Amino acid sequence: MFQNIVPMLQAAASYTKEYQGAWALMGAAIGAGLAAIGAGIGIGRIGGQASEAIARQPEAGAQIRGNAILLAALIEGVALFGAVIAILIVFKF
User: Fold this and answer.
1) Which of 17-21, 41-45, 66-70 has the lowest mean pLDDT?
2) Looking at the chain, which terminus has fewer C-beta neighbours within 10 angstroms, N or C?
């Protein structure tokens, strides 16, 4: 029963060593995609909630708008960091 498992494990071990660069590139692509998707969702929620808050309290519109821009910039910074890390992984392999 276990005689068939050992060659499969050896093949899997050589596969990961042989294609290590390909796995790194795939991981970098997935990481950059997730960073972009997360930033898009975050900025969309900020924009929607800020619009709703301004509609409820128009007199606080300037403060809400300023806070929303600041939060959007912070989220973009995190997304840029994720993209830079993915680019570094791509150029390493």
Assistant:
1) 17-21
2) N
